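Crash report, auto-generated. Payload:
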Amino acid sequence: MTLALHGGAPVRTAPWPAWPPPLDEAQRELVTTVLDSGQWGATQGGSMCADLAAALARRSGVEHGVTVGNATLGLFAALRGLGVGPGDEVIVPAYTFVASATAVLLAGATPVIADVDPADLHLSVPAAQAALTPRTVAIMPVHLAGSPADMDPLNALAARHGLAVIEDAAQAHGAAYRGRPVGGLGDAGVYSFQASKAMTAGEGGLVVCREEAVHDAVWSVCNLGRQRGGAWYGHPSVGWNLRLTEIQAALLLPWLDRLDQEIDRRNAFCAAVERELAAIPMPAGHDGEGASGQRPVTVVPQPPGTTRDSRHLLMLRLHVPFDRSFLLAALAAEGVPLDGGYPPLGTMAALTGAGARPESCPAAVAAAREVIWVRQSMLMDDPGNAAQIAEALAKVLTS
Ligand SMILES: Cc1ncc(COP(=O)(O)O)c(C=O)c1O
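Recovered output after restart:
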């Protein structure tokens, strides 16, 4: 690795793999089957949505699944299905996509924004505990970047206080915690099939759950308040049309056959990035840290209990001061466009203006300052090219 490069030829000129990837034969065939059947909607008797829900529920270690238009609505439906509504508080982590909180607002409840663990950036158990009030009814751990949240202590906290647990697994298809698949570790789990996700139909989502009663309630929320098996114009509760289409399910079903292979590929790429980062010395002027063995860029560690990381993103922490917009622009100029990551939820005026309650979240604030991401599409590249990420970082940090 060359550390003293300044400007000159970019580290990479070839494009990174496209995401979503090109359709495979199985997807083309299944989509054509749906199109030829004339049954494109989820209420016309086709089986793709039901098959997808059953297959991904099984892979999540639970019985039930409900397909839904996207994961924001899936989180909303899970919350409503679990009885969360106005007057209730739901604890969400401060370092996540905004939809984790807006789904709570959509359900009429208050998102309480609790800090994340300073090392792994997932919902902190002590912070969640400190955020509890008599109005807390649920917690929403997020399996951030494809790494499972440390669910055992979070579930124990929820059990002690009678809280529902909704796993935001939007980024974590195929991930596992202590050998158990995510999605089935709480009362309900929610996957996203939006365009950037590990399985995608452009948009889409799925709620999985263990209990039949939760399934029926979530199904009803997504089907205009109907009762499963009940009359078409019978609406015993309030619900909405939040359904996925058969065409989307047909794009997603075959993905389950290649998901593990793709996760393996991303893990291989991430392992190679980590090895390469370990070879970058501290830039001049940071010798003190160098003496302690600290590297200028490290991979954000996985939470305890991670046995399968689906590597939706690779989060990197910088241990040297840097100008964020300069760094990202310079990396992009090197052909290595990394991502600046999330602002802390508690700093978003739209959320607090809508009633979200931020707790003190110094770890999320530090993450927003120090952490950048390698996106999933780049992680799908040949692991032999992982050195380019480290090379670009080393070049930019020493220039
Ligand atoms: C952590 C997290 N939660 C929820 C969502 C919302 O998913 P969707 O875009 O399918 O509504 C996303 C997707 O971007 C996400 O990353």
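Post-recovery validation: The radius of gyration is 22 Å.
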